[in-house]
Fold this sequence. Notes:
CATH class: Alpha Beta
Order of helices and strands: EHHHEEEE
CATH architecture: Alpha-Beta Complex
Shape: elongated
Strand content: 25-35%
Amino acid sequence: MEVQAVTKFARMSPKKVREVAREIQGRKAAVVLEELRFVPRKSARLLHKTLKSAVANAENNENLSSDDLIVHRALVECGPVLKRFRAGARGSAKPIKKRTSHIRIIVSNSLT
């Protein structure tokens, strides 16, 4: 049984979130939740929040035990980009892209 949780419009670039998300796939959810608390990155806080929600969804909606859950997939997709401008040399403007992410974590009770 697969259960998911989604965090949309997270104000962090997908590239930065994927670096941490790659490390948690295929591991036990309870262990990953403990380890993410000590990773000193904003992306780890966002993934911790989403994974905690996915585990709660599995416990409340599907009556699964949190001890048996495995992080099946951690998907990070691009969200909308906020386009801003910063002052440049000689009165010009330099574009800045503030990227957002959609984080989807899928937990299951077996690794199939």
